[in-house]
Amino acid sequence: MEKRPNPMRWIMILGAIALIGVLAYSSMQQTHHKFEVCMSFNGATHCATATGANSSQAVRSAQEIDCQLLANGRDENMACLDRTPSSVREVK
Prior knowledge:
By secondary structure, this protein is of the alpha+beta class. Helices cover about 50% and strands about 25% of the residues. The chain has a domain at about 35-90. Helix 2 (about 55-70) packs antiparallel against helix 3 (about 75-80).
């Protein structure tokens, strides 16, 4: 008597492959744009590079990095984030 392959096993394998593909695709979409942003605050300047799904997310992420390093405390961090970056450059 011949043993038949279990169709549920194949469905699980195909589902796992599809899940890995979706995760890889979404991860690549998150890092589609890359920007270097420089912030000046309290007489100091810092430049950070960040990636994002779109340009505004990438710029905001780099701005947050800069402000965390330039500001002392939450209030200063919020004031820093309200400022316009001193420079924004797309990194290829």
